[in-house]
Every structure is written in structure tokens, then in C-alpha cells.
Amino acid sequence: DYDADRVVHKKNLVVRAGKRMGQVGYYFLILGNYAMLILAVIIGSITPYALIALLSIPVAIKTLRTFSRNYDKIKEIIPAQAGTIITHSLVGILMTFGYILGVLLGK
Predict the structure, then answer these.
(1) Distance from chain centroid for Cα 82
(2) Which tens digit of pLDDT belongs to each residue from 2-27?
(3) Does the global pTM surpass 0.90?
């Protein structure tokens, strides 16, 4: 979206920081999701059953591949945008299921 946003003078973070930083931020958005989940389990702030959210990793990988091939193509990046929404939704749904499972199993 960088070029489209720049043309219409949007001043979002990607336009201000540039395409390269936008790419880095996108990877952080996807991968940071999993890193924080694992860290939260390691430090004991959430139930280990929340790790069921890791089942969404194949969707995240497909999304990252689509993004890396098409980050500079407006129409071709749309599936990556949809994949981002799906990935984060799956993580949230699966984490919720993990919390419920933890409560039901007493952990």
C-alpha cells in the first residue's frame, strides 16, 4: 500500500518510514505474535494450553510468503492482507480455546 498511500499524501507509519521499514514492521507483526505467545507461556503468565494457537503457523507462513513475493504490487498483496487478518483471528480464537481448555482441565 506504500505507493498508493504516498500518492494521496497519507502520512501513515509506512509512508513516513519507507518501504523497507514497512516490510520489517510487517514481519514483526506476524512473527511477534508467536514470540509473545511463547514468551507469555514461558514466564507463566498464560496457560500452556494457549500454545494451541501455534496451529495457525502454516497460515502465517503462507501469508509471509505471499507478502515477500508481492509487497510492491498493489493487487497481488491483497491475499497477504487477508492472510494477516485470518492469522491474527486464528491466533485469538485458538488462544481462547486454549484458555477454556486450561480452565476445564484445571491448569
Answers:
(1) 11
(2) 667 667 767 777 777 777 777 888 89
(3) no
